[in-house]
Amino acid sequence: xxxxxxxxxxxxxxxxxxxxxxxxxxxxxxxxxxxxxxxxxxxxxxxxxxxxxxxxxxxxxxxxxxxxxxxxxxxxxxxxxxxxxxxxxxxxxxxxxxxxxxxxxxxxxxxxxxxxxxxxxxxxxxxxxxxxxxxx
Length: 136
Description:
Elements: H1 7-12, H2 30-33, E1 38-44, E2 49-52, E3 55-62, E4 65-68, H3 72-86, E5 89-96, H4 109-121
Parallel strand pairs: 1-5
Antiparallel strand pairs: 2-3, 3-4
């Protein structure tokens, strides 16, 4: 397991320091950012909490496969982790939803397409991976 970020270096150091958030070498979890207001936030949405038709699917990755997360308190914890990450930004946020890969059973596209479509239907301006890059 990778070590947690050192908050002082990660949040306060300049772009000249590889330990700072500018380099994105290390990611800060919901624990490291809870209670903070950040200028910009990048959220990577994974398959652990994805939208499928009319419901949210809660999962945990164990061993070599995804397992349903049935414990109510663990489901609420997972949902809250995404809420924390999405409520830290003051100026803006980038949400990255991977496209998935049919050849990788750990990242099936259906985990990501439903979430992408749901977020877009909520009015969040998202860039479709098949569109050319543009400023939103």
